[in-house]
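An instance noted here:
***
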Amino acid sequence: MHRWTIAALCALAVTLATAATALAAPSAQGLAHRAVCPPAPTGYAQCHSKITVGANGKPVRSQPVDYSGLQLESAYRLPAPTAPDGSGPTIAIVDAYGYANAEQDLNVYRAQNGFGPCTAANGCFTKLDQRGGTSYPADDTGWAQETALDLDMASAACPKCNLLLVEADSNAFTNLGAAENTAAARSGVVAISNSYGGTEFSAETSSTYAAPFDHPGIAITVSSGDNGYGAEFPAAANTVVAVGGTSLRQSSGGAWSETAWSGAGSGCSAYVTKPSWQGSTGCSRRMIADVSAVADPNTGVRVYGPTGSGPGWMVFGGTSASAPLIAGVYAAKNDSSAVDYPARTPYGRTSLLNDVTSGSNGRCRGAPSSWCNAVVGYDGPTGLGTPNTVGGF
């Protein structure tokens, strides 16, 4: 019975993926943005990245607005390291399924941005399965594209950091949780990025699902979601940094500005209690998000990875871009071990963040306006704001 249930769920996921691809709406430039991963049933995660495709449905190399790693460093005033070579702390990336060419593709991105190599040979790059070994799961193009995005964004925020990739056997939260625990147990890990999520469910507060995301002293960042207003797990966990999304623009004079991205997830958790560090939000339980960064696929980020027909350059958006970027910012600052839960830190350093005050992610459905609209101070789609140097983290 169990086997047939899983098979049915997989078939449903494929059907939904096809539908999602067909619904991708073209822009004025003939481009569209579609979800990289299919919707997932309860207990499973969907990766939160969107890829830009042309009229033929294939990934494009560029679009009118897209950003390199160096441009992201400029936008968020991140320090250019003197040794971009893996001499810093470790950022862990947890994703589902395999990605055989992760190391090679990562270093094409790094070289293009002037970052030093991050390889297994120089000790900067490590890849493990969810048990901490090398029995890697089979490759999956969608999740491999997600992983490429994560590795590249973590590199952009902290080029000097080591990178640990932990590949879960599947996108089941039980497997992703095992991978999370493996990442947290690894010496030197100061931040773990998780660019996935799913609809909240009543069992999310049980130790089976919540415990893997509870590792005090480690900044565990989680995408808030790409479907606009509505809370998701594990972003709703009160032990993680829930990361929302923005649209990032640069003026002709070089100044940067941001608005809330329409797809950024936000909301009041149905099950999780409010953490002690989260102030008044109008929600008596856990409120999403805490902080944010670029996620709008219309102001996307350049990534090198598997296109489906070989490696190449692509453009991505989604809160799958913002979560690893924020993990990298935490790692660049590298004082997460000084607090129990690093999500606490920005709440005491709001003057060191860019407050995003305009934009919306949809209708609040009777809830306070700030749950779905950017306002002065805290709001749901962008949290407390975006990095303005690493000082707020």
